[in-house]
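Person: I keep going back and forth on a fold encoding question. Show me how you would write down a chain together with its backbone fold. Please set it down just below, with no commentary around it:
Helper:
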Amino acid sequence: MGPPRIAALACLLLGQLVGQIASPIEVSVIDSAGLPIAGVRVEVKAGDRTIASGETGPQGRLSFPNLASGRYDISATKDGLEALQKPDVEFTGALELTMVAVMARHERVDVTATADPVEQGASSPSVLPGASAKALPSKPATVADALPMVPGVVRTASGDLQISGNGEERSALIVNSADVTDPATGKFGLTVPIDSVQTLSVFQTPFLAEYGRFTSGLVSVETRRGGEQWKWEVNDPFPDIRVYSWHVRGVRDATPRMNVEGPVIRNKLYFSEGLEYEVRNTEVHTLPYPKNLTRKAGVNSFAQLDWIQSSRNMVTATLHVAPQRLGYANLDYFNPQPTTPDAGTHNYTGTLADRLTLWGGLLENTFSVTRFGARVWAQGSEDLTITPTGNFGNYFSQQGRDASRTGWASTYSLAPLNALGSHAFKIGSYVAQSNDQGAVHEHPINLLDGTGHLFERTTFQGGQPFQMADTEYSFFGQDHWSISSRLAADLGVRTESQEVSHSFRVAPRGGIAWVPFANTGTVIRAGFGLFYDRVPLSVYSYYHYPKRIVTMYDESGDISGGPFLFANPLSYVNIHSRFVFHGHTDGDFSPRSTTGSLYLEQTVTSLVKLRVGYLQNQAAGLVTMTTLGPDPETMQGAYQLSGDGTSRYQQFEITTRVKAGDRREVFFSYLRSRARGDLNDFSSYLGSFPLAVIRPNQFGNLPGDLPNRYLAWGLFRLPRGFQVAPVLEYRNGFPYFTMDGYQNYVGLPDQNRFRNFLSLDSRFSKDIKMSPKYTVRLSLVSYNLTNHFNPAACHANLADPAYGIFFGSRGRRYTADFDVLF
């Protein structure tokens, strides 16, 4: 039986495990502005008999601990609000009710779990609840760790995230609507602890004009608020010991995590904290022990305060603190420990958000301050020497940088307006001041061919400290137009500008959601829009980097060419677009993409939902590294950053979600995708760990290109406190590039792939009640249960005697976990 059939059979078996088991069901009640409503009387009826009732607390929540999943009639009442009646509602987990004031009869009252899908807009995200993410076998500690469980997101063998086939620097990360990406590199950095996450959403097609500053995807994180009672949770309190050759060899991992939440002032002030201390000594299995360990140590803390000032006003403050130390970064077979760098990074982000119901609408203001820092240094001062069979010496780049951003986002959602249907208008603005300062120092690089002969040597000249600043502005206006109960449209326009790039950009967006047939559960969503990416400040700092001096040698050791001096210029871009206005100066970059999608969503049963769709993203104006050959007379050339790179991404998706209760669900997806573009993305040479060799740019398969990917996972709560969370993934191997002995690409770089990947992982756990207050959770985690050969590396250089051999696969293995719940 082939792997695709195994995947399909396994997903079918997982679907059969979904059961109707009684568990606590939580109801939350909010107003039209999204604020919680306390004191709402909620009744649950089966026929004429009331089987459960109660009132919501200060945060608008009410729990029914002994209510079995099923279909019930629900009513919600409170003085001053319109009574809510919802017959025959599927009651399986968490439901959210929206109530409105008596005078606001034009507003729609609905239960979001059973709402008409037209209300959700022209695009819907892939959502991963925080509770589900925590139960996965991979034990994700942060948002970035959990993202590969979302369709369209993968992590390459080098550890880089790829969203819609592109690097994370082309996507945006927002936490509670605040931008938290690194202003210098555009990357995510160390993300929020998973214990603090309420919901993790990935938008590949967010056609609402309020979203911007990306060309690939948007990752949105909503964090957990404190509850009505104090709760404590401790995960992985004890370290994992490494055993090698039947002897204890120190600590492998120590990742204790604590989560605490509760009311500081009842009915007013709530607090939550997710804290992780991480020490990881990760083995690279392509190298011999003990020189095969990468080291990571750090603290990741996310604290949140929620102040309910009144029923019309709520204020939220958050603080994210994440210092980290890395040892032997990017260690692999071809780059042993002496050739790798060490690094120290830090990320500090604070936000203050105010939500106020005003004039029948909602006014939201979010202030954010972000600080990113990085220090990178080598293990020694030797030259870095690169050969077809592996490298030696020390890492070539040393750098230190500090980047910051201070931003203010303000939006106002107007009260609904009735005119040829219902209109929900929203307007907003964003302004941010960013800075990047630091310095880069580099030492020589030697290139040797397959015989050990030195054929090229690169030294560096100059380089000076840099200090860059930028101010960004954006404005948007959008309308969610409910034309009828079965047809809605999202129309909007967004403008963005960056002073440092001397550009002003206009992004029109539009989309529809249509229910073609009544009572069939079918929704068709389609959209089209323009998106613009912010240009990270490291692009403009590149001019201050050291210049390369390249000298060529023949077999006798004599100079055969050079020395050639390569400068670090920025190119001028001639943009032909009616939506981009630029200053006609060097560095006037405007990365942009044109994205369109068509999706069909079908509710098969009350438990099963199906989504089928097609997405296409055409990007232009991307910042890439290009090589300008040296002039024979001046002996000068350039490694130039140009703004004319392109990429194409196409995706066909089939996703099925089976959900029966809060923690009983099965997810299955199949993606057929293609990602092609210019290979010399700027982030490969301007990040914290730049590549040493700059090759001529080529157009080919991007690192995240995966023609076929099957992904299935489930979360099942079993009797007697048992729980199982399996994950099955089958996909094509990642592309790799064949090189010759002179480190040049050979042939078409998109014709080679790693072997197909298959892995079945599982986490089996048991909750043991030690006392009314304490619960112990024991877990057994298994990886690669099929023992499939999944190589991590390949000999890809033609001058390597081992050319074409794949290696570094990890077989079947098991670990144990121990958690304490308070």
Summary: The longest helix spans residues 3-16. Confidence is low (pLDDT under 50) at residues 3-23, 102-119.
